Amino acid sequence: MEFLPFVIEAGQYTRESGLSPSEDRMVMNYEFDLFQSGDGCITVDSTAYPVSYGTLMLRRPGQHCHSDGAYRCHTLTLSFSGERNRAERSEMSRHRKGIPEPETMHYALDMTPTVLTPEPYEVYEDLFTQLRFCCMTGYETAYDTLLSEFLHRLAADARRVINRQAGERERAALHPCVRAAMEKMNAHFGERITLTDLGQAVGLHPHYLHTLFRTQLGMTPAEYLTRVRMTGAVRLLSDTTDSIEHIAEVCGYGSAAYFSDAFRRFYGVSPTESRRSAS
Q1: Tens of pLDDT along 72-99?
Q2: How far apart are alpha carbons 267 and 139 in whole angstroms?
Q3: CB under 8 Å, gap of 24 or more: what pairs does 33-36 form?
Q4: Which of 22, 137, 167, 188 would suit a FRET pair with 6, their CA atoms being 20 to 30 Å apart?
Q5: What are residue 12's DSSP bridge partners?
Q6: Which of 28, 29, 35 is nearest to 49 (CA)?
Q7: Computed from CA positions of residues 150, 157, 55, 31, in that sequence, does the dihedral angle turn out positive or negative?
Q8: CA pair distance 36, 14, nearest whole angstrom
């Protein structure tokens, strides 16, 4: 059985322009930042790393870091030091003082450099958004699935970087038709989209597109569309007071009941319960 970490926090952070460099601090746990924008840099153990859209950074326990410049990022802090409970989260911020947790041996962490460019970015952003939703609401049913996928994807991208640095043949980039299908679903997830529609839009036979999509992303187009819709639903539930019926319609579901069933299957909790917990 795969060993999965404890989620200390999952959120978002914005560093405004014009600020002085932050004070140096010691990293307590495993910190991941997925950058949505930026023209600054983060220094880790005396090495300055520029950060910008699409960058993923990993900082390990015991390292020292400080920030300079402006940026916006998703944040995820994990602990691999054993079972913990939710009550401890409030006492485990990134800026606390103390003794860092011991470094752990893990297939994903062992290979991952401090900075890499994950591919595709949209899938990582969805994972960070959904983990933030679980952390915010306290509903942790989906944690294991989301964390397992995150770590497996991280390991695959780390292998790609290692292979490239070793001069070996790099894993093929996303097929342009797969990228085009993703962009169509991202832009029109509130509409009815079938595999035939996608195939016609990108110029591939639907069955070949299905195979190619699954080979490159590890999920089918239908599964990707569900993920995009669930991410959109989470944002609307968290950031607006729109009715469940309206959110269902915006996210491409024919009825509130159908949407609620899909949401519960994905997160293990109903939209109404999740909104109540987040308030």
Answers
A1: 999 999 998 865 555 455 556 787 777 8
A2: 8
A3: 33/57, 33/73, 33/74, 33/75, 33/76, 34/73, 34/74, 34/76, 34/118, 34/121, 34/124, 34/125, 34/128, 35/71, 35/72, 35/73, 36/72, 36/73, 36/74, 36/125
A4: 22
A5: 74
A6: 35
A7: positive
A8: 10
pTM of the model: 0.75
Q: Which two tokens stand for residue 48?
A: 């300055």
Rounded to 5 degrees, what are φ and ψ at 146?
-65, -45
Determine the 3-state secondary structure of 264 from DSSP. Answer: helix
Q: Is 242 left (phi over 0), alpha (psi -120 to 50) or beta?
A: beta
Question: Could you please report the per-residue DSSP string of 142-164?
Answer: THHHHHHHHHHHHHHHHHHHHHH
Token pair for 182:
């993703």
Query: Residue 162's closest CA among 119, 122, 116, 124?
Result: 116
* Beta strands 41-44 and 6-15, pairing class: unpaired
DSSP of 17-59: TTPPPPPPEE--SEEEEEEEEES-EEEETTEEEE--TT-EEEE
E strand or H helix that includes residue 194: none
CA distances from 118 to 7, 153, 166, 182, 259 (A): 21, 8, 18, 16, 30
Average pLDDT, the chain: 87
Cα 218 to its chain centre, rounded Å, is: 15
CB–CB of 78/32 below 8 Å? Answer: yes
